[in-house]
Amino acid sequence: MGWTPQGKHLIAGEWVVGEARFRSAPAHGPAHGFAGGSADLVDRACAAAEEAFCTYGWTGREERAAFLDAIAGEIEARAEAITAIGTQETGLPEARLQGERGRTVGQLRLFADHIRKGDYLDRRHDKALPDRQPPRPDLRLIQRPIGPVAVFGASNFPLAFSTAGGDTASALAAGCPVVVKGHPAHPGTGEIVAEAIHAAIRATGMPAGSFGFIHGDRHEVGAALVQHPLIRAVGFTGSLHGGRALYDLCAARPEPIPFFGELGSINPCFVLPGAFAARGAQLARDWTASLTMGAGQFCTNPGLLVLRAEDADTFTAAAVEALADAPEQVMLTEGIAAAYRAGAARIGAHAAAVLEQDSRGRNARPGIYRTSARDFLHSHDLGEEVFGPLGLVVTTTSDDEILGLARALDGQLTASLQMEAGDTALARRLMPVLERKAGRVLANGWPTGVEVADAMVHGGPYPASTNFGATSVGTLAIRRFLRPVCFQNLPDALLPEDLRG
Amino acid sequence: MGWTPQGKHLIAGEWVVGEARFRSAPAHGPAHGFAGGSADLVDRACAAAEEAFCTYGWTGREERAAFLDAIAGEIEARAEAITAIGTQETGLPEARLQGERGRTVGQLRLFADHIRKGDYLDRRHDKALPDRQPPRPDLRLIQRPIGPVAVFGASNFPLAFSTAGGDTASALAAGCPVVVKGHPAHPGTGEIVAEAIHAAIRATGMPAGSFGFIHGDRHEVGAALVQHPLIRAVGFTGSLHGGRALYDLCAARPEPIPFFGELGSINPCFVLPGAFAARGAQLARDWTASLTMGAGQFCTNPGLLVLRAEDADTFTAAAVEALADAPEQVMLTEGIAAAYRAGAARIGAHAAAVLEQDSRGRNARPGIYRTSARDFLHSHDLGEEVFGPLGLVVTTTSDDEILGLARALDGQLTASLQMEAGDTALARRLMPVLERKAGRVLANGWPTGVEVADAMVHGGPYPASTNFGATSVGTLAIRRFLRPVCFQNLPDALLPEDLRG
C-alpha cells in the first residue's frame, strides 16, 4: 500500500478542504484531486500563523533546533513515499528525489546547528557610560524574528526549494511561522512533506499555526497570501514574470514588505584561451553534462558560454558529439516544456542552431545555438533565460569584447571562469565586472550543484533576485527573516532570553 | 569675513551651475541664490559616481578609513562657518549646531574605526572537502559594496542626517560613492559640508566622483536621482508622504532598488502606575523637556504619552505648568511651521486641548492634547505624526486597554516604558507587543537623543521605516550598502584583498 494524498490544506493544525478543486498532472502514475485555495483559507492560515508567533517567536533556540531536527526525521520516515509521489508528479528520476531529500534534511539540520551556535543573533552591547556628558545609556542589540512568512513552492525543486525547503527552514529557524503556497505541479509531494512537518509540530509541542500549507493552482491564492496584512516577508523561487508580479504586489501594499524572489539567470561561463588550449574538448563535454542535468531545469543552468571565435568550431563540435546520444527527458510540466520550445524558437530567431532542439509533448531535447558577441549585444532576447537544456555559445574576437559582453549582462546568480595560470591577467580584468553581476563567482567548475553552506550565496543583482543583499541558500538566508531591535536600559527581567546576564 | 555659498553643485570634482535657480529662505541673515538641480545634472553626477566606483569600490579599508577621518577633520576646520550658516538657515541655536557637528564627525570616525576592524565583512570560509561525494568546493563569502548610493539631506538634521551624515558616512565606509540631494531648507550648510568632503577627496587622492552634491528645490530632481539606472540604493530621512513617493519610484524601476527611508514616528511612552506614583510630576516635566527640545523637530519626539486615567489630571497639570514659560521657537521652514499648525488642528478636532498651541509665522509653541484610549483607537488621525512640539496624552482604564492600545499602534522608531519594580508584571506583558512595533525599546528614559553606537537601531516597522531589517544610525547602518558575494575555488590572485591568504 503506497501513500495517497488526501488533497487537503493544513491550517491551524487541521486538514481542511475548500470549495475549489483541481487535479494533479503527473508525468506518470495516477492523477489525484486536490482542494484549491482561496483568499478565505489564506486568511485563516495567516491568522493561525500570527497567533502561533506569539508563542513560537519566543521559543528558545534549542527548542526550535529540536523542531527542525524532528522535521528532518519525519521526512526521512516518509522517504520511500516521498520519492514515489515526487517522481510521479515531476518526472524527475528516483536518484534525484533521493539526493534532493538528503539535501533537504541536511539543510534543516544545518539551520538547527546554526541557531544553536547563536552567532546569527549578532548580539551587540554598548555598556552604559554614566560619567560621560551626556551619559550613555546601556544599549543591547539582537536580531529578532519578523513574524509570519509566506513561502512559495518552486516547480523545479519539489523538496529542497518547496514545502520544507531553504525558505521554510530558514524562516522557522529564525522563529517565524510559515505559510506555504504549494506548487500545483507537485501537490502530493508538497502535501506529504506538510504531513511530516505537522507530525514534527505534534511531536515537539510547537503551536499548531507554526506551519500552514495551502494548495492552489490559481494566481489569486498567491496574490492573497502576499497581500495579507499579517505576512511580514515572502520567499519565492520561480520565473521572472511571476516573481515580478508578486514583488509588485508586495511593494504596493499599504505597509510594504520585502519580497525575496530568486527569479533565474543564464549563468555565463567564460572559457578563457589557456583553459581552452589545455582542455577544450573536455570542457565541452563537461558543459553539456551540466547543461542537460535534470533537463536543464536548474536556476544555475549554464545557459551562456563565452569563448574566442577561433575556439568555437572545435568546442561546439565536441559539445554536439557529447549530446549525440542525449536521451529525451521529461520536463516538470507541460507548460514548462512548451515554454522551453518557445524560448528555443526565440533564441533560434537571432542565433544559429548548432544543434536544433527537437522535442515534443512534455519532453525536452537539448539545443545548442551560436552567435557573436556583437549580435548578442544587439538583441536583448538572447540574454533572457530559457528554462531547460539550452545553451548559447557567444564568440568573441578580443579581450575587450569579452569585457564589454560581461558589462552588458543582466544580474546573475553565478558567473564562471574556466582558466589556467596563463589566463590570470584577463581573469583579473573580468573579476570586478563579474563580481558586480553575480552572487557567486567560480573558477574551473560549473554552476549547477549549489552547496548548502555558511559561505554560499544563491542570489544576485536583479533579475537574478529581487534583493541583491540576500541569499536563499546557506545559513546567511536566515537574515532575511530577522530584524534588529535595540533594548535601552532595560532591566534583565524584560530582556529577551538571549540578551540576559 | 564669513563664508558665503557659491550656490553651485559638486559634480565629478567640479563646482558647476545649471539653468534653474532658487533662493534660500533662512530663519535669519541674508538669503542666497543657489543653482537648481536637473535630471541632466543628476545624470552627470551618477555617471561620475559609477566611474569612481571602479576605483573607490576596491580601495583598502585603511584608505577609506583615512578618507572618513579626513572628512571629519575638514568639517572641524570649517566649524565656525558651518555653525554660522547652519543657524541662519535652520533657526536652530548655536549649541545645537555645535553638538550636531560633534555627532557628525564622531559618526565619521566611528565608521572609520568600524571598517578598520573588519567584522562588518562577515567573512565566511567553507574549506574544500575533496574526498566527500560529491566533493565540496572551496567557498568564501564576503560583503562587498553595492555601487553608487543616493542620499537625501534631511530638513531636521542639517549635519548629522544630511550631506556628511549617517547615510553618507556608512555608504562611503562600505565603499560606495554617494550622490547627495541637498535639502533646500539648508542649501548653504549642505554646500559647505560638500566643500569639506571635496577637500578630503583631494587630500587623500580619492576619485573625484566618489562624492557628488546636487542642490534642488523641486521634486523632479529627487525623482530623477532615485530612478537613475546607476543608483543601487537610496538613504532618506523625511516625511511619510515624500518618502513613500520615492519608495514607490524605487519599487517601480525596471530594476528595483532598496529605498532605506526613515519616515517618522509618534514614539509612544508608557507611564506605568508605579512610575507615576514614585515620580509623576518629575516625569511630566521631563516629558515636556524632551517634547519641546529643538521645537519638537526630532524623529524620536515623544508625541504619544499613555497613562492611567486617574493619573492624567495631575500629570497634565504638571506638564502645563512646566510649559508655562516655554519660549516660542523658530521652526526649520515656513512649510514645517504651517504643517505643525495643521497637524495640531487635526489632533484638536478629535482630542481635548489641555494646552492649545498658539503660534504664528515660522514659530511654534507647544500643544498638549488629551483623549481616551477608546477614542484614540477609533480615530486613525490621532495616531499620525505631527512634526513639532505636540504631545497627545492617552488615558487608559485597565491593563488590557493599555495592551490593546499598544497592539493597535503603527510601526515606531521607539517605544518607552517609565516603570518601577512593581510595574514589572505589566511591562512583561507589554514587551512582546512593543518589540514588534519599534526598532528601539527603552526603559526610564525619553526617546530623543539617539546614541551613535554599535547596538543602536534607528528604524522599525513601517511607517517608521521602509525596511524593518535596517537601521540608519549606528554601525549596523553599513549593512544597507553591502551585498554578499561567494567566491568558489578562486585562486588567491583573483580574490578580493580581504579574502586572500
Automatic annotation (TrEMBL), chains A, B:
<dbReference type="InterPro" id="IPR016161">
    <property type="entry name" value="Ald_DH/histidinol_DH"/>
</dbReference>
<dbReference type="Pfam" id="PF00171">
    <property type="entry name" value="Aldedh"/>
</dbReference>
<dbReference type="InterPro" id="IPR016162">
    <property type="entry name" value="Ald_DH_N"/>
</dbReference>
<dbReference type="InterPro" id="IPR050740">
    <property type="entry name" value="Aldehyde_DH_Superfamily"/>
</dbReference>
<feature type="domain" description="Aldehyde dehydrogenase">
    <location>
        <begin position="35"/>
        <end position="460"/>
    </location>
</feature>
<keyword id="KW-0560">Oxidoreductase</keyword>
<protein>
    <submittedName>
        <fullName>Aldehyde dehydrogenase (NADP(+))</fullName>
    </submittedName>
</protein>
<dbReference type="InterPro" id="IPR015590">
    <property type="entry name" value="Aldehyde_DH_dom"/>
</dbReference>
<dbReference type="InterPro" id="IPR044151">
    <property type="entry name" value="ALDH_KGSADH"/>
</dbReference>
